[in-house]
Amino acid sequence: MRALFGGRAKHDYLSDALTLLNGWTREGEQIRRTLVIDDTQHAALTERVKVVADALHLRPEISRRADHTQIRVGHSNSPLSEGEVLLAARIEDAYRAVAEPDGGRPT
User: Fold this and answer.
1) What distance in Å separates the CA atoms of residue 23 and residue 40, rounded to the nearest whole number?
2) For the segment 28-68, what is each residue's pLDDT rounded down to a tens digit?
3) Could you tell me one molecular function GO term of this UniProt entry (predicted)?
4) Mean per-residue pLDDT for 77-100?
5) For the chain, what is the HEC assignment?
6) Which of 12, 42, 61, 93 counts the most CB atoms within 10 A of its CB?
7) Is pTM, for the whole model, over 0.90?
């Protein structure tokens, strides 16, 4: 099973995983997402992302401009890792939790 993450297979795995992350765009070795949320939602999202990022030992860039939040994951000088794709998926979970009226829970 280790071969799945090596060489060409790793690239294919990450590409496949990225196709499942709606709203994320790839820019070189980084991925980014823009979210239209208010200041309160931004603060809640930032706190949730910090917990996950700390656990994964990663540092996403999160910035606030007008009515939207910009998130960047990855480094311009190194390939995107499995952990960074996982972080993006967890950011999506956090976004749903703070942006949806029911907290992202299934009904």
Assistant:
1) 21
2) 889 999 999 999 999 999 999 999 999 999 999 999 998 99
3) 4-alpha-hydroxytetrahydrobiopterin dehydratase activity
4) 92
5) CHHHHCHHHHHHHHHHHHHCCCCCEEECCEEEEEEECCHHHHHHHHHHHHHHHHHHCCCCEEEEECCEEEEEEEECCECCCHHHHHHHHHHHHHHHHHHCCCCCCCC
6) 42
7) no
Please list, in sequence order, all residues whose beta carbon lies within 8 angstroms of the beta carbon of residue 81, skipping any fewer than 6 positions away.
Answer: 74
Query: Which residue is listed with tokens 């706190």?
Result: 47
Place of tokens 């060409």: 8
With a cut of 70, say whether residue 91 has pLDDT above it.
yes
